Amino acid sequence: MDQNSVEPADPTLSRRVTWALRRAEIAVQAVKEQGLRPLGMAVAHYSLLMSVHVDPGLTGAELARRLGVTPQAVASLVARLEQRGHLERRPHPRHGHVQELHLTDAGRAALRSADRVITEIEQRITQELGDDSTRLVALLERVIDAVPDGRARDPGMSADR
User: If you write DSSP's letter for every residue of 67-103 in order, what string do you get?
Assistant: First the structure.
């Protein structure tokens, strides 16, 4: 082999679990973005609204950790959703300088609309998977448990509060 040629990648690399998870995530993310677009919402908006719905009173720093994004990204998104009337900031009862995030009535309505879209997508996936969908969820939970700090980004977890 001449020194300018590149060794081909191992063909089994494309069969790795993490690569399959990533490809599935990208495919689902694209369908969600497409479905939410007519509502004027992105998946990031939905994720943030869902996180605040599941655990009202989150701070921006907590949201950033849970969503796996920078605090600056959360601050920008929170400002946008606050301008739309979907979120409101309230002072923390014990720490006056800390702001908690809560959904407004408009935010709950936007989340319900978006969740109908996401539920439809999920139903298409589970219909395709049939009985395997329950097994897939169980396997994904095992993946989360197998990865150190994997639960730290789970919007439903509140152990760090």
Answer: HTS-HHHHHHHHHHHHHTTSEEEEE-SS-TT-EEEEE
Residue 119, φ and ψ in degrees, nearest 5: -65, -40
Tens-level pLDDT at each residue, the chain (161 residues): 555 666 667 777 778 888 899 999 999 999 999 999 999 999 999 999 999 999 999 999 999 999 989 999 999 999 999 999 999 999 877 777 789 999 999 999 999 999 999 999 999 999 999 999 999 999 999 988 998 765 444 444 333 33
Residues facing 113 on adjacent strands: none
| Predicted TM-score (pTM) of this structure | 0.77
Round to whole Å and give the CA distance between 138 and 118: 20
Which tokens hold the place of 58?
């989150």
Which two tokens mark 49? 């609204």
